Amino acid sequence: xxxxxxxxxxxxxxxxxxxxxxxxxxxxxxxxxxxxxxxxxxxxxxxxxxxxxxxxxxxxxxxxxxxxxxxxxxxxxxxxxxxxxxxxxxxxxxxxxxxxxxxxxxxxxxxxxxxxxxxxxxxxxxxxxxxxxxxxxxxxxxxxxxxxxxxxxxxxxxxxxxxxxxxxxxxxxxxxxxxxxxxxxxxxxxxxxxxxxxxxxxxxxxxxxxxxxxxxxxxxxxxxxxxxxxx
Length: 231
Known about the structure:
This protein is of the alpha+beta class. Helices cover 69% and strands 13% of the residues. It has helices at 2-18, 20-49, 57-67, 69-99, 105-125, 131-159, 178-197, and strands at 168-175, 202-210, 213-221, 228-230. The protein has a four-stranded mixed sheet with strand order 1-3-2-4, covered by helices on one side. A hairpin with a 2-residue loop joins strand 2 and strand 3. Helix 2 packs antiparallel against helix 4 (69-99). The protein is elongated and about 75 Å long. Keywords: Membrane, Transmembrane, Transmembrane helix. The chain crosses the membrane at residues 21-44, 72-95, 107-127, 133-156.
């Protein structure tokens, strides 16, 4: 059990070091969200104080749009830029992991952590009197990111070279024990096998013992049955 814990810790640290720029950017964006919310709610409470609570919402919206339009445009524009930054960060982080065949549990947990803050902030903003403005910015942000994703995905798949037989797609290690290397190999193959099967490949793992420990190499194979080889 101890070596499993150490293995998970080591892999997490290595993963963090590899994508540290994305983590720094993510933390920066999260801090920006909290700063934004502080300024927004200060402005909103002041504006809400002057709104007649007994009239219909349409009248309230006309009132705040007439007297606070400039301020509303500023806060909604800032929201748009923050949301766009968060979505693009998630998109590029996801795409880089897919491109480098590194997508796994660490990637999923990271994306959830980076995505939960803008999600909660957006929900809190959509329950205010300014929700039509925020909804418009929300739709625009997702539309821009989706178009970018579609174009990037098309260009990537169009220019991507086809994998060849016995091509090394992943190297990992060194691991202190053989069991650690085998666990990593099995988890990697289990996760990525469906993707490579669509391209008529299976995955083969080879574990090599070196002076510093055990190294894992994952290869493509055109054989129908996957297998592991150890040396």
